[in-house]
Amino acid sequence: MNIDTFKLSRVMPLRVLCLLSLLTVSVHLGAQEKTTIADDAEAKAKEEKETLARQDPQARALLDAAKAKLKSLKSLVADYESTRGASTKNFDKQGEVSLERPNKFRIEAVGGAVVEERTLRAVSDGQLVTTINEYNFAAFEKPVRAENFFLGQNFLVQFFFDPRGIAFDPTDGLWGRAISMFDTNMSAYDKDTKLILLGDRTLEGRKYQVVEIKYNTARTDIRQQIYIGEDKLVYQVDTYFDGMIYSQKYRNFRVDGAITAETWKREKPEKMPMIATDPVRMGAEAPDFALPGHDGGEFTLKGLLEGKKGLYVCVLDGEAAKAAGNADVHLPQMRVLQEMKDKYEKQGLAIVCIVGGTGITPDLKDEMMLNWMPDVTRFNYPIAIDIDLEKGIQGSAFHNFQLNGRNNLLLDGKGRVVFAASNFTNKVNQLAFYQALAQIGFTVSAAELESAAR
User: Fold this and answer.
1) How far apart are CA 196 and CA 215, in angstroms?
2) CA proximity to 281, closest of 152, 429, 175
3) pLDDT tens digits, residue range 380-402?
């Protein structure tokens, strides 16, 4: 360790120094390289040992038994309720979910005081996943992909199809945390995962065993409590996040029954706009787009990337300020984009802001820019408007560039996603971003790394 590094180590957090090592080009070969490999293996073994120490064997066995139960089923139908808060209230059926291997599901909202009324919310026929938005205005259609077609629905849908065991999923858009292709969120989440068996609890006269997955970051307390019945099926999942409780409840399971082919048919209301989407995935090449600028011209992904080492894409909901009654809702985010441009443009980073939304029609474009956006004259990066003039609604770019709810993406020079985050106004996201930026050839200062890690 040289003198400068020693001085830095006295004032900077350990994980910042680890990140700084990413920015140093190694010129050591032979024995030193072997030493590094040995050190990495030792660190990995230590990490695995610490992870096991934080897991209650009984809790892990119970989750594994619940997963084995789901894997043994060919089909499953259940009533469900999804609520915020009051996780102990009695079950009140809101809908029905149907599942069939290898890749078919249907989610319906069920209502009606006298006569039952059913409204399709999502369906996978094995080829396409179709989601109808909650206002019954637009349907979004994307290809079924083995690794992620079940994401973004609910806990039961995910873990019926997901080949992995039941665990905390850092890629779940609910958490709103950063993901880096080079780190897959581990440094951003601080690696503080605990698996705890909470014991028996009784709801509505039935006894359940409850396992808690506790995932603390330096700034957020995140917990999932999973209620498992005597039959090893999951009956309830309470998620504690940012002071709120999100509950998903499942009742009246129908196991391995015959499900008709009609179940997987898409019943799209007449004249409903259909938007074809293929959301970009981590490590995958982003789809091209051709969007008009807010004050004229056209921007394409290919054109923005030409001659650049990277491109930062930020997607903003044009209706958010209208709903909040505040035209400056996006101002902090847009200021961050300007700071990025000022810092890294000379190194080869391009910036583009895409503004869209389900309700943004061509006739609302001028009103949106005037009343629902900050004063954009203070920014000098491209602001593209995602409006499809032929359909009268937005095109697919607004939806394609939202990775599991994350609306800020960093692409490398080949257009591949190397970082994704929900907004960019917290330190966790900044730290993961700097890491990804360094990996694709940019120079990040020690001061920026230290500031992000505080």
Assistant:
1) 11
2) 152
3) 999 998 876 555 555 678 888 98
